[in-house]
Write a sequence for this structure.
């Protein structure tokens, strides 16, 4: 467990990566979480403070996350444990520690964000909602255990690195 000082406003690149953290409390006043700031740790939930205005999409990757928690945030929302934009149209991050076999992207989502499924190693199946039209770069990055992504053909825009080397497993 780590207690960050209340005066801390930014956590830099890989600052606490692979530190064995089992609990994480982010303080109000924190504004920026850089790339892999807390990656490769062991905590299962995280509360995103209302003061966070910039969070790299993989700042919390590979952490056994099972849920995101936000309370009255102007930029982020949570729906069924995943992190979305405030208006719920963009999936920002699927918790990579989910024990569920599949993740169904809700019908209100139009965009799968960069690194949204980064290191979601336990997922076997992702079902893309019919309104999703955009897959940002590295959206399905590091999906080691994935067996199927359904409705992939419904996407109008797929960035060149969105599917990386797992593309042959996707439908």
């Amino acid at each position: 467990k780590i207690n960050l000082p209340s005066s801390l406003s930014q956590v830099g690149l890989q600052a606490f990566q692979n530190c064995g953290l089992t609990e994480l409390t982010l303080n109000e006043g924190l504004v920026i979480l850089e790339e892999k700031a807390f990656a490769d740790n062991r905590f299962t939930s995280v509360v995103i403070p209302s003061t966070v205005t910039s969070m790299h999409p993989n700042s919390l990757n590979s952490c056994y996350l099972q849920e995101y928690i936000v309370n009255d945030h102007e930029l982020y929302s949570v729906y069924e444990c995943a992190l979305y934009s405030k208006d719920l149209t963009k999936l920002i991050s699927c918790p990579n520690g989910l024990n569920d076999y599949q993740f169904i992207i809700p019908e209100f989502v139009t965009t799968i964000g960069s690194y949204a499924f980064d290191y979601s190693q336990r997922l076997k199946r992702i079902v893309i909602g019919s309104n999703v039209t955009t897959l940002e770069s590295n959206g399905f990055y590091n999906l080691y255990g994935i067996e199927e992504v359904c409705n992939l053909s419904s996407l109008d825009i797929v960035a060149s690195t969105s599917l990386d080397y797992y593309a042959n497993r996707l439908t």
Remarks:
- The chain has no helices and 16 strands.
- Residues 39 and 60 are 5 Å apart (CA to CA).
